[in-house]
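input
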Amino acid sequence: MADAATSDAATPDAGAADAVRAEHRAELRKRWLIRLAIVVAAGGAIWGGWYYLIGRNHVDTDNAYVNAEMAQVTPLIAGQAIEVRVKDTQPVRKGDVLLVLDPTNAKIALAQAEADLAAARRRFRQARATSGALVAQVAAGAADIARARAQLVSAEADLAKATLDLQRRQSLSGTGAVSGEELTAARRGQAAAAAAVTSARALVAQAESGRQAAQGQFAANEALVAGSSEDTDPAVLAARSRLDAARLDVERSVIRAPIDGIVTRRQVQLGQRVAQGAPVMTIVPVGQLYIEANFKERQLRRVRVGMPATITADIYGGDVEYHGKVTGIGGGTGASMALIPAQNATGNWIKVVQRLPVRIELDPKELAAHPLRVGLSTEVEIDVSSAD
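output
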């Protein structure tokens, strides 16, 4: 009986203890829920404050890559490669010799052009001398005309005398004072004098024609040299231009680096015949790299040229930051500029968020301290607070 009474007395006490423990657990749960709510609210407030003060003023993307204005090396003349002085990954400076082509044909053309220039100069000097000779011919023609005219006057005087002698003898022939032989001689003399006059007139016409021909040749020759010197003669200038072109071809047989950078994609081998305009290698200007960041279209609402940007590269991680600025925004999305643009005209079309390339120039000093290479992945964050 005593044990039963004791058991009955302990049962209420155990139930009370369980109730106390349950109430304690409920109290603890309530406290932790309150604490969790406070933490969540604080986190939300902190995030809200961060977004309002910082987050909303920054846009970022990890779809960004290093790019550069690369130089394509192409020979301006065709020829066989007799020297290849660089290899892939080799740094070069502007003006360094990259490739030498066989200059034999170019040198032959240069010698021909030099000979053509010398011949053009000689022809000009000859034309000048010809003008002097033609002036003398014109003067000689004038003298010939004067002499022919004098001969004509003399022949006309002889004809007049012969005609008078003939008339006098003809008038006396009826009286028997003049023999028939004298009359015949007088007639022969008059005919000879008339022929001499005709010959003298022909000589005058010939002298005048010779003078006119000399004047025409002089005028034609003067048209070639008038107003020009040996250095300004059109034929000499044309020959000099061909000479300059030939010299340029000789110079172009030595191909030099157009910019500072690193040689990539070398496609020429020793002994290979290179075609004019065919690319033989590429030079990447590693000191003038930029970032091409592809932002979603909604991220670009407030992005403007000149805004500052912070860049991290995967090659260095977050320990190295680059600082740059926006220098340009693409004129079209990547999809619209593709070789085969997307045609979303079907009924099952699904809208895809488009991206637009943004160009960001880097600080050259930071780039020199931590070099990058074309194609490396980066993360970009643009501060758009100045857009407000």
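quick obs: Residues 105-248 form a domain with the Helix Hairpins fold (CATH 1.10.287.620).
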